[in-house]
Design goal:
about 35% helix, five-stranded antiparallel sheet, NADH Oxidase, 6 helices
Length: about 210
């Protein structure tokens, strides 16, 4: 372990319910994903990534089902996956221009480290799958936050490889599993610009009987 984050306390340890922090408030208020075309080396090392993922799993998780899995792509595995994904694309959509398959082959080469986060719900008859999928989304965002806090830029992408049955088979997913997204991590080569944000006042209502 690299001690980027403090170790988790033992089960049953009393925890603080709140941690007021001006630095954290600024961090969240100014959070920004990196541009996928502006992620260079280095990325986190394997041990650093393990810590980032461990921190990312500290999300709401009803009944402690851990309805998520992580598939890490580093080094030449990124290229190997891209080549295999291009073959899947040829079989699923053979009418595309050759350039589309070349582009697919290079998808994961856009960052030195890529993590596929997999929704893997448990059909326990008590916990709605939708609720478990929301937990997976929380993990995706938390992974971005943890990576940013540890010094790496990143972005969460889906693209067609998140919705292809052929890619699901390539990744070895079970029938009830699906890709929540690919998290691209690296060192920003250019500062992202602020983008338009929603006017939250227009999205908020306060219920009254």
């Amino acid at each position: 372990m690299t001690n980027i984050f403090p170790p988790a306390p033992t089960v049953g340890t009393p925890m603080l319910p709140v941690r007021p922090s001006q630095e954290t408030r600024e961090f969240l208020a100014l959070r920004r994903s990196a541009n996928k075309a502006c992620l260079g080396s280095p990325g986190p090392t394997p041990s650093q990534l393990d810590e980032i993922i461990a921190a990312a799993t500290r999300v709401p998780d009803h009944r402690r089902l851990s309805p998520w899995k992580f598939i890490v792509f580093e080094g030449d595995a990124r290229r190997q996956f891209g080549d295999a994904a291009a073959e899947v694309q040829r079989s699923e959509d053979p009418g595309l221009d050759a350039g589309a398959y070349t582009f697919t082959a290079g998808l994961l080469m856009r960052a030195p480290t890529v993590v596929a986060i997999i929704s893997s719900p448990t059909e326990d008859g008590r916990t709605p799958v939708w609720e478990q999928e929301l937990s997976v989304g929380a993990v995706c965002h938390n992974l971005l936050l943890a990576a940013n806090a540890a010094g790496w830029a990143g972005c969460w992408l889906t693209e067609w490889i998140s919705f292809s049955k052929g890619i699901d088979r390539l990744l070895g997913l079970a029938e009830n599993e699906r890709v929540a997204g690919f998290i691209y991590l690296g060192t920003a080569t250019m500062n992202p610009q602020e983008r338009a944000r929603p006017e939250t006042a227009q999205l908020i209502t306060r219920w009254a009987p």
